[in-house]
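Progress report, Aim 2. The chain analyzed during this reporting quarter is listed below.
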Amino acid sequence: MGFETSAKLAGAWRDPEFWGDAWGDARGQSLMSRQRPERAGSEHWNRSAARFAARTQESDAVDRIVQHIHMLGHKILLKRDSQVLDIGSGPGNYAIPIARQVRQVVALDPATEMLEILNKRAAEAGLTNIVTVRQAWEDVDLDQADWRGAFDMVLAAMAPPFNGVANLQKMLAACRGLFVAGGHLQRDEPVRRELWQELGLGELPDLCPDPFYAYHWLYASGYYPDLTTEQHFSLRQLKPAEAQAELEDSVYPFLDLTPDVREQIRGFVERRVHGGVFLLARSDVSGWVTCQVGTTVPQEEQSHIHQHDHDHGHPHEHSDAHGNAHGHHHHDHEPDHGRQQ
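Predicted structure tokens for the chain:
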């Protein structure tokens, strides 16, 4: 490693711009960069809302969501008068259990169908303290909505807006307490990789490890973030029609579902059905970034820490030699209850 590269990396630990640029570059090479903007937003989520909601109500997914709510209880005491913003709320997987503990949850999502499912679930649960807002996070004006510093917790659980510095800064600006965001660090879906090849889409790009970049950007910006990782493997048994619908949903943001494409997917599924069952395997590693907003490192302390790091030849006591964040490494199973592709 040359001196120039080494010096750049050494300085990166206290350079938010470095991590912001690196995050943007990683996003530009990821699966998300292949999406067609007109097909990747609310239209996609409206189309798949019912199937998505049904998958996240399976017993193991519900159990894991409960575990995540319990994890949050160790980070902050959600009080009866707390106000929570759930960004990319989807069908309410987090909004509903959190609403049982707090004064109000504002559930933000651009997909009408998702919010309709959320409202139905809330009504069935007898909850009247969830306010739904149909809007994309990118379109939110914090001052117009009177949301600047308005929330005791801001949550973005596997949400598409957790995708770069601009959205992250706005999330922090809405928060006066705990910020929580979850995303994938790694994901492998052999069937989906095979399907991409068969449809002529080439190699399936990797997801962007958003939590990794967010953690380091927060640290470099003077916060005390924590990064918790979770590993999960699932093997689902689907009926052929269910498998076809899910695989069509998975490619919808990337290409037109013409009759020929749908027929290709149907043939792909049929060739892999055994005993009337289509097996869909998936493994992933997810990361949850948490930090207390308003608790940043004082400027004079940052200078002391950076001088100490320079003197002792290591970047920061909370990162190991490989740049891994020091956090709690749980092996609870992580559902695909979130909204990332």
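The radius of gyration is 21 Å. Confidence is low (pLDDT under 50) at residues 297-338. These observations will guide the mutagenesis work planned for the next reporting period.
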